């Protein structure tokens, strides 16, 4: 991987989505698991936003009917991480500053996270789970900027890449417990285990649920491909896209140890791709994580994990 492919060609995300999901059997998850229902305001906003030339006044009034969503949207938009030159004091201002495409992505992401945060899991510590998702999202955004890909799609897709796992690990507790037990003896990728055990994996399931909820095609593709790891950097279709950024974020350590060697792979990547400075990425990600309220006492950030790893290897991680 001495050279990362720099040009991935123009993207038609609808074609990519149809091709990717067309190769998998449609899953009827609703028959097996209790999936959250998105707030009525979000569903109405998603439908109404498809109307040609719809005004931000109309869309803002829809969102303002949900005060909780309004607060979360303004908090996200005004965070220093996203670096908007002006601050938004109303939903309409937020829509004007973000533009409809970005706003819709943020709103859907915020709504799903909010709905799934109310879930329970017998296997997953949800505080650490969402802390990890936030760090992955910020890391994916940094990588997307490096790749000159869409940073907002990368952020949202990385935040939601594992959003079904709390539901799945509760409904299929014995099977996922077996995975955790096996990880201690013979580590394997979670997606590989799911495919062998169920005939599907959480990445495919997440993409199909996102399609049902009307998410953008690019984000759906990111969800579907998020466990492809470094392979996407060598794929002409995805090498410099948000999907590659999300796939790299999936290699970060997580509560289920989905990719045991993920951190090692990222360290190896920086030795082959000079612009990929993992230490700097980890530092920026941790700073943004703290700025967005990430303060879980028992959560080990990527920066801290990387420092320990590099110390054990006797290196600082510099090129």
Description:
There is one protein chain. This protein is mainly alpha-helical and about 325 residues long. The protein folds into 2 domains: about 80 residues, no CATH class; about 200 residues, Orthogonal Bundle (Hypothetical protein af1432), CATH 1.10.3210.10. Helix content is about 60%, strand content about 0%. It has 17 helices and no strands. The chain starts with 12 loop residues before the first helix and ends in a 6-residue tail after the last helix.
Question: Can you summarize this structure?
Answer:
It contains 17 helices and no strands.
Q: Estimate what percentage of residues fall within beta strands.
A: under 5%
Indicate the overall shape. globular
- Characterize the biggest β-sheet: none
> CATH topology of the largest domain, what is it called?
Hypothetical protein af1432
| Secondary structure tally, helices | 17
Q: Structural class, please? A: mainly alpha
For the record, the CATH class of the largest domain is: Mainly Alpha
Round the mean pLDDT to the nearest integer and report it.
86
The run of helices and strands is HHHHHHHHHHHHHHHHH
Question: How far apart, in Å, are the first and last alpha carbons?
Answer: 16 Å
What is the strand tally? 0
Low-confidence stretches: 1-10
CATH A-level architecture of the largest domain: Orthogonal Bundle
């Amino acid at each position: 991987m001495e050279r990362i492919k720099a040009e991935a060609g123009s993207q038609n995300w609808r074609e990519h989505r149809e091709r990717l999901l067309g190769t998998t059997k449609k899953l009827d998850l609703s028959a097996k698991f209790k999936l959250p229902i998105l707030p009525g305001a979000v569903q109405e906003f998603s439908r109404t936003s498809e109307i040609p030339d719809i005004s931000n006044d109309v869309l803002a009034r829809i969102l303002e009917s949900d005060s909780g969503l309004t607060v979360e949207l303004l908090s996200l938009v005004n965070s220093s991480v996203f670096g908007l030159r002006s601050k938004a004091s109303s939903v309409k201002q937020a829509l004007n500053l973000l533009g409809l495409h970005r706003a819709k992505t943020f709103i859907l992401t915020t709504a799903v996270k909010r709905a799934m945060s109310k879930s329970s899991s017998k296997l997953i510590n949800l505080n650490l789970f969402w802390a990890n998702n936030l760090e992955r999202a910020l890391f994916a955004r940094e990588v997307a900027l490096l790749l000159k890909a869409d940073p907002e799609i990368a952020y949202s897709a990385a935040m939601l890449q594992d959003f079904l796992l709390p539901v799945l690990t509760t409904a299929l507790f014995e099977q996922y417990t077996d995975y955790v037990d096996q990880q201690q003896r013979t580590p394997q990728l979670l997606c590989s285990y799911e495919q062998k055990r169920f005939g599907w994996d959480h990445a495919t399931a997440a993409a199909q649920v996102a399609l049902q909820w009307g998410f953008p095609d690019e984000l759906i593709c990111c969800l579907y491909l998020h466990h492809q790891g470094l392979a996407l950097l060598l794929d002409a279709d995805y090498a410099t896209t948000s999907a590659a950024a999300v796939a790299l974020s999936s290699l970060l350590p997580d509560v289920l140890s989905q990719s045991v060697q993920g951190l090692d792979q990222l360290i190896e990547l920086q030795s082959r791709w000079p612009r990929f400075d993992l230490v700097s990425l980890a530092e920026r990600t941790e700073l943004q994580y703290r700025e967005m309220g990430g303060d879980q006492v028992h959560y080990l950030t990527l920066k801290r994990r990387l420092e320990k790893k590099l110390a054990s290897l006797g290196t600082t991680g510099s090129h």
